Amino acid sequence: MTLPQMVLLRCQQCSATLHHLPGQPLARCAFCGSSYLVSRPPDPAARPAMRLVPFSLQPVRARELFVRWLGKGILRPGNLARASDIEEPKAVFVPVYLGQCRAHSNWTAEVEHRRVRRVDLGKWPGHALGDLKFTVASESETQALSGAHDAEYERVCVLASRGVDEGQFGSLSEFDWSKLAPVDAGLLGEAALEEPVVPLEEASSRMKARVQEAEERACAAMVPGPAFGGLKVNTIVDVREVELALVPIFAMGYTYQGKRFRGLVNGTTGRVAAEAPLSTPRLAVAGAALLGVPALILWFLWRRRL
């Protein structure tokens, strides 16, 4: 793997550290837009990424999709796409950890079985609905159950970025991991590379936590019956292999009514995740509609009683 010599700049506002080519202009941070960038020497102990998912989307197309996204949304201002000063997309390879995990879970739960039976009353005169001859009674019993679940989890993804919001990154959907290729200068192009900030040990802990959450959902699906409680899941997660990889992101920014907002575009699928302002008039209309429906129902019920 032969890579060109790159310059390392650290943003003083969001603390993201970006590698970029010496001849490539980088006057502002690709993520927060700050101009306070400080050159720093590379860390000799830093662990380089060995594989990446290449860009399959052109910047022009990424901008088109971002503008289209701004024009959608019921609660956003109607002129958001037209009145915003949209910055040019900035191609960035963002670091992530990919892990291969195996999980074994043991679970216990209490399942409630309900049974409805008919109770004969003989004859009960004078009721508003007429003479009652029977009614129904509901009975329930609790049964303790247990089970086990085993699963393999491939490419559990943990974000290792400082400049990318984790919530926005999670909304970008999956990347095509089948396109993972060795890091090469030809695939990097003019994109910047962000330096990872999450240690390997912390990434492994996050992977275990995500697998445990997935195991709880899988074990809950194994419990028979619609009503159960007291579900307890004990999971052992073995993180077998972890690699540092790079995924393609277009960092977007735009200014609307003097305020800057940030966004991301998936460099392979074109999916957009971004901040957006809310329209006060539209919020007022939506709130009135939500309050109006219950009021209308109450008025209708009151009218029926008259």
3D structure, described in words:
With 306 residues, this protein is an alpha+beta fold. It folds into 2 domains: 7-108 and 144-275, no CATH class; 113-143, no CATH class. The chain is 24% helix and 42% strand. The protein contains 6 helices and 12 strands. It has helices at residues 59-70, 80-83, 166-170, 185-188, 200-222, 280-305, and strands at residues 7-11, 17-20, 37-39, 51-52, 85-86, 90-127, 130-159, 181-182, 192-194, 228-256, 259-266, 272-274. Strands 1, 2, 3, 4, 5, 6, 7, 8, 9, 10, 11 and 12 form a 12-stranded mixed beta sheet that branches. Strand 1 and strand 2 form a beta hairpin. The longest helix has 26 residues, at 280-305. The chain starts with 6 loop residues before the first strand and ends with a helix.
Which features characterize this protein?
single chain; alpha+beta; twelve-stranded mixed sheet; 6 helices; 12 strands; 24% helix; 42% strand; flat
Q: How many discrete structural domains?
A: 2
- pLDDT averaged over residues: 84
**Oligomeric state of shown chains:** single chain
Instruction: Note poorly predicted spans.
Output: none
Specify the number of helices: 6
Largest sheet: 12 strands, mixed
Q: Find the count of extended strands (DSSP E, 2+ residues).
A: 12
